[in-house]
Give the backbone structure.
Amino acid sequence: MSKRGMKFTEKEVAHMTGKMVFSPGLDDYIKTQKKSKFHNVITEMDDMKFDSKKEAKYYSELKARVHLGEVKYFLRQIPLLLPGGIRYRVDFIEFWNDGSVHYVDVKGHRTDVYKMKKKLVESTYPIFIEEE
């Protein structure tokens, strides 16, 4: 059979493209997730998605620190605008009870792009990004 004559099922298309497919004949969406380059597993906790198990674990530890009174509160996935229209998203901004503010990125693998953006953030803003 020629390539033009090949037919694929919805599941096969979803698998090949890594996208969700909906067909009126199917009961649910079919979703396949592309494999991550760095083998991180998207994790869901408290109705939020995290890019990795490590980030979800750090979030859980932060919640415990808030409960213990060490941290007043924290914010997640805060965008910082950089020159040239570049956007950098810091994983957590933590506001500690001693008045300090910590900018934390949870990384399993430090890519060259991450290193470049981190340097650019630290040279643009008076902050230091901690890595977990």
Remarks:
- The first helix runs from residue 10 to 17.
- Strands lie at 43-45, 48-50, 71-82, 86-96, 101-105, 129-131.
